[in-house]
Amino acid sequence: HRYRDPGAGDKMVPFAEQEAWENCQSGKATLKSGSRNKQASADYEFVFEDGIGFIKESIMDGVNLEDEMSSEKPDDSTAKNALQKLQEERKTLPIHPYRDELLQAIHDHQVMVIVGETGSGKTTQIPQYLHEAGYTKRGLVGCTQPRRVAAMSVAARVSQEMGVKLGHEVGYSIRFEDCSSEKTILKYMTDGMLLREFLSEPDLASYSVIMVDEGHERTLSTDILFGLVKDVTRFRKDLKLLISSATLDAKKFSDYFDSAPIFKIPGRRFPVTINFTKAPEADYIDAAIVTVLQIHVTQPPGDILVFLTGQEEIETIDEILKYRTRGFGTKIAELIICPIYANLPTELQAKIFEPTPDGARKVVLATNIAETSLTIDGIKYVVDPGFCKIKSYNPRTGVESLLINPISKASAMQRAGRSGRTGPGMCFRLYTAYNFQHDLDDNAVPEIQRTNLANVVLTLKSLGINDLVNFDFMDPPPSEALLEALGQLYALNALNSLGELTKIGRRMAEFPLDPMLSKMIVASEKYKCSEEAITIASMLSIGNSIFYRPKDKQVHADNARMNFHTGNVGDHIALLNVYNTWKETNYSTQWCYENYIQVRSMKRARDIRDQLEGLLERVEIEPTSNLSDLDAVKRAITSGFFHHSAKLQKTGAYRTLKKPQTVHIHPSSGLAEVLPRWVIYHELVLTTKEYMRQVTELKPEWLIEIAPHYYQMKDVEDASTTKMPRGKGLAAD
Ligand code: CDP
Ligand code: MG
């Protein structure tokens, strides 16, 4: 484990009171009066079962601007209308004093790098300033965000500030959801969406300004955008380009954009006290919960922000915190728990921005999204377990997985800084100072260097960029990964042997999906099952949030789920069955409840499906249904996913056919107990083992029929298990 500190001493030390901290620093770690355990049992009905000791390590400098800030604070007592109040709030943002200077600089330079601390107002204000200065008369102001939630929530905020309806003058565009209109002048969008816009408008003619926001995040799409927009600014001298970043690493951006000037917005930050645990924590989930409760019971008012790695973790902690604060009674303030993550339904997102009622405390359970993309006012305490989920790709095995990894030092600093926005803050790191110093990298590796590039390569090829090796990357991807992507696209028939886009590839590029899914859809034309293919693609696109399994009704939920698997049809067809049955009930919510299906996920699948249907028309594929021939549907799936094939071993485990590795059927699969000899899977997930998720039985001869250039007879022959006849009778059944 990376979080093992060889010098770690005893773990139970007092917490919270200054005196107690000093004690642990001087080694006198005893539970004495003033430590929270004692206090908790004496004054409150609530007792900690296990506490965590922290060591105050350092104070992160801040510029104390309290006086200036408070004098500018809007006066809440007068009855002003909301719009006016928002306008006044805008004037208190750190960026406000630099408005005119900034506009002048944008006027003078075509490309500019803008650096400013998170929360200074870059995302919400700069596009409005540009509008006020008249840039929207010449075209749209587009602002990209790495995350969909950020694009939505920022657009909502800006539409409020401008007093217009979301989707009118201020809109957003994220994959499968376009909330913009003819009227839109300020458009927030994910970086991936702007990338797709290049397909229809390679010179971005409808835009007057592009702001690539959160440049420091270095997502794959942002990195590709850098190369594309840099090129556009060369022949469109009227297009303004702003690259904004929350970190001080701006020099790199400036160098890349031909020494573009850097505009710094001085931050306003209060000092933040950094605390580390005295010893490494074995279970950071538990440690986070205990820390939140400790803060709540012992510390002065102020909201808490906890950084977690994903939805599941957030839901777990949400549940446990609710449970553990139930017995609080009236002596302890209310703790309002607000989760925020990418798939959180829109209507629940607004809750995190609501001001905390007097006497209560808010705890925001967030993913990395709250690190720089979203600013929540009132946070005074940050709890940082030190982890985040990142995508990592192994070009050798072709496996891409989401793994929980330690964060970088830069991230840790960003996270800590979130507590010092409106007053002195405190950050509780659930790792030791030793870990911070020795185990964390300085910066995260850009996504382009750790991801499957097939999607991007397909997009670039369809933009006519053929020479990928000489594409102007800020940091080039490993050539191994580039070759692997080209190989994969060639195998999918998206590229020919010269590396040029084929007709199939051109059609595939129209779909905002992973190339394997796009290929499945394009291939479904041949098997006359395009209706089924887009249903399956939409169901797969919403991830694994379709079925739910309440703890007290697991048996019922499992039974309901298995109904869709009747005949061991496999997980893909089961998803199809779920969708089609729901459709037959006229999209009934009641039916979803009865079958332990998340209606919200289903509605999203339906939206996605509608859009894929539109795209089918665009690439001129007839909508056809072939429900009577499920093998045809499975062949279409195989056409996209033949790379993902595996064969049962004598051991009961599976082995992937190419680039062999041992894998297992995920316990949630309908085939988990059936164990067919040959399977095709949607994805691999690594938990305790390497699991295949969404599995369908396969006839091995399909592989040779569908991908003859990828599979030869020897690949599907059976040397290890029962002999199979060669040639025609090859099928296992
Ligand atoms: O982009 P940057 O981090 O510099 O700041 P911003 O996102 O423009 O945020 C400026 C201010 O707007 C923050 O202090 C938030 O209080 C507020 N804001 C909000 O209330 N609701 C949002 N959805 C986004 C921002
Ligand atoms: Mg921002």
Low-confidence stretches: 1-49, 64-76, 719-733
Bound molecules: cytidine-5'-diphosphate, magnesium ion
Alpha-carbon distance between the termini? Answer: 46 Å
How large is the count of helical segments?
28
Radius of gyration: 27 Å
Our estimate of the beta-strand percent is: 15-25%
Q: How many strands, what sense, and barrel or not for the largest sheet?
A: 8 strands, mixed
Count all strands and give the number. Answer: 22
Roughly what is the average pLDDT, rounded to an integer? Answer: 85
Percent of residues in helices comes to 25-40%
Task: Indicate the overall shape.
Answer: globular
Strand order, largest beta sheet:
5-4-6-3-7-8-2-9
Structural class: alpha/beta
GO biological process, one term: mRNA processing
GO molecular function: ATP binding; hydrolase activity; RNA binding; RNA helicase activity
GO cellular component, one term: catalytic step 2 spliceosome
EC number: 3.6.4.13
Structure description:
This protein has 28 helices and 22 strands. The strands form 4 sheets. The chain has an 8-stranded mixed beta sheet, with helices on both faces. The protein has a 7-stranded mixed beta sheet with strand order 1-10-17-14-11-13-12, sandwiched between helices. Strands 18-19-20-22-21 form a 5-stranded mixed β-barrel. Helix 11 packs across helix 12 and helix 17 crosses helix 18. The two termini are 46 Å apart. 46% of the residues are buried. Cytidine-5'-diphosphate binds next to helix 6 and helix 7. Its EC number is 3.6.4.13.
